[in-house]
Amino acid sequence: MSENLTRLLQDWRGGDQAARDALLEQVYDALREMAAARLGRGRDRTLQPTAVVNEALMRLLGSDTDWQDRAHFFALAALKMRAVLVDHARARAAEKRGGDVAMLTLSHVDREAAGDSVEYDVLALHQSLERLAEHDPRAAKALELAYFGGMERDEIACVLGVSVPTVDRDLRFAKAWLNKQLA
Q: What is the span of the domain harbouring residue 74?
């Protein structure tokens, strides 16, 4: 599937609209699962995974991006989903003046630590990720790709151009740093 997606991305970049349609058909369910995992069982039922994916795809399709491969596409989709979640949380906070802020978990990053799932305010998480990016950009990017992109460690390593053990260290550091910041 990975090679097929890369081919479809390249064909789409060449102007083939049928390749774009085939690509979206293949990745839509995976993107929806990523969004559903981010939203989890939180209190915020006004934002559904389908809405997150649709908005992220609109932003993704509207950008003039030069796709490299499957991993690059999913990394950019992760960025767009993060932006959708943050924009939604800001709008809700403005409506409620902070009263009913959306909560998310880092459960996707915590796969090895069963039952260690903590909910975070999406705006606080976003701000903490921005601060982490100032301190350690690669660790912040690794966490973003794992959490918002649902990417596996080997895919993150490929996107970042580092080894899998380096990704593991970055994810451990980022999680510990965020837990301290958000405690």
A: 2-182
